[in-house]
Design goal:
alpha/beta; Rossmann fold; seven-stranded parallel β-sheet; two-stranded parallel sheet; binds 1,4-dihydronicotinamide adenine dinucleotide; binds the ligand O=C1O[C@H](COP(=O)(O)O)[C@@H](O)[C@H](O)[C@H]1O; NAD(P)-bd_dom_sf; carbohydrate metabolism
Amino acid sequence: MDDPVLLTGAGGRVGQAILHGIGEAHEWRLLDREPLSSDRLPPGVADDDVVVADVTDADAMVDAMDGVGAVIHLAGDPRPEAPWNSVLENNIDGTQTVFAAAVEAGVEKVAFASSNHAVSAYETDERTPEMYRSDDDFRLDGSELPRPGNLYGVSKAAGETLGRYYHDAEGLSVVCVRIGNLTGGHPPRNYERGQAMWLSHRDCAHLFDRCIRAEYDYEIVYGISDNERKYYSIERAKEVLGYDPKDDSAEYTLDGEPKDGA
Ligand SMILES: NC(=O)C1=CN([C@@H]2O[C@H](COP(=O)(O)OP(=O)(O)OC[C@H]3O[C@@H](n4cnc5c(N)ncnc54)[C@H](O)[C@@H]3O)[C@@H](O)[C@H]2O)C=CC1
Ligand SMILES: O=C1O[C@H](COP(=O)(O)O)[C@@H](O)[C@H](O)[C@H]1O
């Protein structure tokens, strides 16, 4: 991908993990509704390629996509407990605006940050906590129906459906990445669910690099590291994107300390 990549939500946790890992591998246009301080920018990004805008602003989004080859769309309200008015505006309206602007601007592909919460109601009382453990073989693989556990999850399922529509109606290539739990340095501490869906910073950057480089039509994949504990399959991400994760929460104790040799 020689054309610039637009990264929305560039100043946040996922955006910064991506930029720290692959900031020098692509030309970027970085967008956030909050101004981005210089320590949040990879080297060599021109001032014109740093955009302060809200993703619900249709004109600003079309402008931001001028000449762009791919979009990584992260901006939104990431709180599982977020209220309806916020996810309706930031996550659903914002994501529709991003997809529509991508079509209008002639962008080839969009990677959408979906979430584990789009399917978190599969974690029933009967299945938990056993499904978070390495000897349990329950798996979600992306072909199942959404089953959100909260309104935030509903907004992510809506984003996936918008992606399906813009692929079918307009030919946009779309990959929805159901991100697990991103933490830097070590998996979430003393949290079996979080360890089963840990996404390390380096695997996160590599996964979105593959979303930029790979060819696909419409896909839903899980974005977790190669954890021994898991209830999400990463086979589709490997097959379609060439995802090759390096980290595993089993290399750490439950309280997040590296085990010997890790
Ligand atoms: N951090 C995680 O473990 C996970 C994150 N995700 C998703 O990944 C995306 C990024 O999450 P994080 O980086 O953790 O969140 P964050 O809150 O750290 O970053 C989000 C960024 O988006 C910006 N933003 C929010 N609403 C905006 C709007 N309407 N217009 C423009 N910019 C806006 C914020 O200013 C912020 O810089 C979100 O869509 C979230 O739902 C999904 C699953 C797990
Ligand atoms: O979608 C998200 O999921 C992660 C993990 O969820 P949690 O309920 O186990 O914490 C969350 O940390 C993140 O903020 C959210 O955007």
